[in-house]
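Model it.
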Amino acid sequence: MNVFKKFYDYYFPKINKAYMAEMIKILDEKEKKIFLEMSEYDKFHSLEVLKKIKKTELKNEKIYLKLALLHDCGKGKASFFKRVLHKFGFFTKLQNHPKIGAKKLENIDKDLSVLIENHHKKNYSQKMKIFQKCDDES
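Modeled.
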């Protein structure tokens, strides 16, 4: 993890307007509301994951496009410091973000909720491995 780049992206996220327009086409109204409630950094990160997913064989799988946009919706407004601790393996509330995010989506899209809950699980599926690579690179 490049801490300096993450620091810059956290405090100065440059949200791509074209990908925001893409988000509007992918998510339904309830999902958009959840996306828009995310921190600026999480929106930025999710749009970067979307950009990478669109370059893979998952590019036509709407549920993985939605996963790219909403996978971190359970993180809330976590500080940069808390995020760094989490990345280095320290226990933080961020370890529960998949369950929190899944809960937000369970009454909107059950299949998406399941993917959000499992988006960090190793060996979940071949498609999830592709998603995880895009997430890790963003």
